[in-house]
Amino acid sequence: MLLRADHTLNLVFFANANLVWYDRLTIDEDKTMLKTLVGLGITLGIGLSFPVVASAFSVCGLQKPQATFKTTRRLITICRGEASFQMIMTYYDGTGYQIIPVQREKNLYRGTDGINNFIVNNREFIIGSDGEPPQRERVIQAK
Questions:
Q1: If DSSP codes are grouped into helix, strand and coil, which group holds residue 126?
Q2: What global pTM score does this model have?
Q3: Per-residue pLDDT at 3
Protein backbone atom coordinates (compact mmCIF):
# COMPACT_ATOMS: atom_id res chain seq x y z
CA MET A 1 0.00 0.00 0.00
CA LEU A 2 1.30 3.41 -0.86
CA LEU A 3 -0.11 6.52 0.82
CA ARG A 4 0.34 9.80 -1.02
CA ALA A 5 0.28 13.31 0.38
CA ASP A 6 -3.11 14.04 -1.23
CA HIS A 7 -4.74 11.40 1.08
CA THR A 8 -5.33 8.88 -1.66
CA LEU A 9 -4.10 5.35 -1.50
CA ASN A 10 -2.57 3.13 -4.15
CA LEU A 11 -3.03 -0.59 -3.53
CA VAL A 12 -1.09 -3.37 -5.15
CA PHE A 13 -2.54 -6.89 -5.04
CA PHE A 14 -0.74 -9.99 -6.17
CA ALA A 15 -3.16 -12.35 -7.90
CA ASN A 16 -1.75 -15.35 -9.73
CA ALA A 17 1.63 -13.63 -10.13
CA ASN A 18 0.00 -10.67 -11.92
CA LEU A 19 0.12 -7.19 -10.48
CA VAL A 20 -3.26 -5.53 -10.15
CA TRP A 21 -3.33 -1.81 -9.36
CA TYR A 22 -6.25 -0.07 -7.76
CA ASP A 23 -5.47 3.61 -8.07
CA ARG A 24 -6.77 6.58 -6.20
CA LEU A 25 -8.77 5.07 -3.37
CA THR A 26 -9.69 7.61 -0.74
CA ILE A 27 -9.12 6.99 2.94
CA ASP A 28 -12.86 6.25 3.49
CA GLU A 29 -12.87 3.72 0.67
CA ASP A 30 -9.74 2.17 2.15
CA LYS A 31 -11.38 1.79 5.57
CA THR A 32 -14.35 0.02 3.98
CA MET A 33 -12.07 -2.27 2.00
CA LEU A 34 -9.95 -2.94 5.08
CA LYS A 35 -13.04 -3.89 7.12
CA THR A 36 -14.13 -6.25 4.36
CA LEU A 37 -10.71 -7.88 4.14
CA VAL A 38 -10.49 -8.26 7.93
CA GLY A 39 -13.98 -9.78 8.00
CA LEU A 40 -13.08 -12.24 5.27
CA GLY A 41 -9.87 -13.13 7.08
CA ILE A 42 -11.70 -13.78 10.35
CA THR A 43 -14.33 -15.88 8.56
CA LEU A 44 -11.65 -17.90 6.80
CA GLY A 45 -9.70 -18.35 10.03
CA ILE A 46 -12.74 -19.59 11.94
CA GLY A 47 -13.75 -21.91 9.10
CA LEU A 48 -10.32 -23.51 8.93
CA SER A 49 -9.99 -23.92 12.70
CA PHE A 50 -12.80 -26.51 12.91
CA PRO A 51 -11.81 -29.81 11.34
CA VAL A 52 -14.47 -31.41 9.19
CA VAL A 53 -14.77 -35.07 10.03
CA ALA A 54 -16.93 -37.35 7.92
CA SER A 55 -17.20 -40.83 9.25
CA ALA A 56 -19.13 -43.85 8.23
CA PHE A 57 -18.35 -47.26 9.56
CA SER A 58 -19.69 -49.31 6.67
CA VAL A 59 -22.89 -49.92 4.75
CA CYS A 60 -24.61 -49.48 8.13
CA GLY A 61 -24.01 -45.72 7.98
CA LEU A 62 -22.94 -44.25 11.30
CA GLN A 63 -23.82 -47.38 13.26
CA LYS A 64 -21.31 -50.15 13.76
CA PRO A 65 -22.19 -53.45 12.08
CA GLN A 66 -23.65 -56.12 14.37
CA ALA A 67 -21.86 -58.84 12.43
CA THR A 68 -19.90 -59.27 9.20
CA PHE A 69 -19.37 -62.40 7.14
CA LYS A 70 -17.08 -63.00 4.20
CA THR A 71 -18.00 -66.01 2.09
CA THR A 72 -16.34 -67.46 -0.97
CA ARG A 73 -18.41 -65.10 -3.21
CA ARG A 74 -20.06 -62.40 -1.07
CA LEU A 75 -19.63 -59.84 1.68
CA ILE A 76 -22.49 -59.90 4.18
CA THR A 77 -23.03 -57.22 6.80
CA ILE A 78 -25.70 -57.32 9.51
CA CYS A 79 -26.92 -53.89 10.63
CA ARG A 80 -29.46 -52.82 13.19
CA GLY A 81 -32.56 -51.53 11.40
CA GLU A 82 -35.62 -49.69 12.74
CA ALA A 83 -37.70 -52.77 13.56
CA SER A 84 -35.23 -55.62 13.12
CA PHE A 85 -31.82 -56.43 11.75
CA GLN A 86 -30.93 -55.95 8.09
CA MET A 87 -28.67 -58.16 6.02
CA ILE A 88 -26.75 -56.23 3.37
CA MET A 89 -25.21 -58.49 0.72
CA THR A 90 -22.78 -57.50 -2.02
CA TYR A 91 -20.36 -59.30 -4.26
CA TYR A 92 -16.66 -58.53 -3.76
CA ASP A 93 -16.72 -55.92 -6.53
CA GLY A 94 -19.59 -54.01 -4.84
CA THR A 95 -22.32 -55.12 -7.28
CA GLY A 96 -25.43 -57.06 -6.36
CA TYR A 97 -26.30 -54.78 -3.44
CA GLN A 98 -29.32 -56.30 -1.68
CA ILE A 99 -30.97 -55.50 1.68
CA ILE A 100 -33.02 -58.17 3.44
CA PRO A 101 -34.76 -57.92 6.82
CA VAL A 102 -33.50 -60.69 9.13
CA GLN A 103 -34.08 -61.98 12.63
CA ARG A 104 -31.37 -63.09 14.99
CA GLU A 105 -31.62 -66.61 16.42
CA LYS A 106 -28.72 -67.28 18.79
CA ASN A 107 -25.63 -67.36 16.52
CA LEU A 108 -27.40 -67.16 13.13
CA TYR A 109 -29.41 -64.66 11.13
CA ARG A 110 -32.44 -65.72 9.09
CA GLY A 111 -34.52 -63.73 6.60
CA THR A 112 -36.40 -63.72 3.32
CA ASP A 113 -36.90 -61.36 0.39
CA GLY A 114 -40.17 -63.02 -0.64
CA ILE A 115 -38.48 -65.26 -3.22
CA ASN A 116 -35.44 -66.70 -1.46
CA ASN A 117 -34.68 -67.59 2.16
CA PHE A 118 -31.30 -66.60 3.60
CA ILE A 119 -29.48 -68.08 6.58
CA VAL A 120 -25.99 -67.12 7.71
CA ASN A 121 -23.89 -68.19 10.67
CA ASN A 122 -20.16 -68.37 11.41
CA ARG A 123 -19.66 -71.46 9.22
CA GLU A 124 -22.10 -71.24 6.29
CA PHE A 125 -24.30 -68.98 4.18
CA ILE A 126 -27.37 -70.65 2.68
CA ILE A 127 -29.72 -69.34 -0.02
CA GLY A 128 -32.81 -71.48 -0.41
CA SER A 129 -35.88 -71.26 -2.59
CA ASP A 130 -38.93 -73.49 -2.75
CA GLY A 131 -38.52 -76.53 -4.94
CA GLU A 132 -34.77 -76.10 -5.60
CA PRO A 133 -31.72 -77.37 -3.74
CA PRO A 134 -30.15 -74.68 -1.52
CA GLN A 135 -27.02 -72.81 -2.57
CA ARG A 136 -24.34 -73.08 0.08
CA GLU A 137 -21.27 -70.91 0.53
CA ARG A 138 -18.58 -71.44 3.13
CA VAL A 139 -17.92 -68.50 5.46
CA ILE A 140 -14.22 -67.62 5.29
CA GLN A 141 -14.25 -64.88 7.89
CA ALA A 142 -16.79 -63.84 10.54
CA LYS A 143 -16.70 -60.96 13.00
A1: strand
A2: 0.57
A3: 46
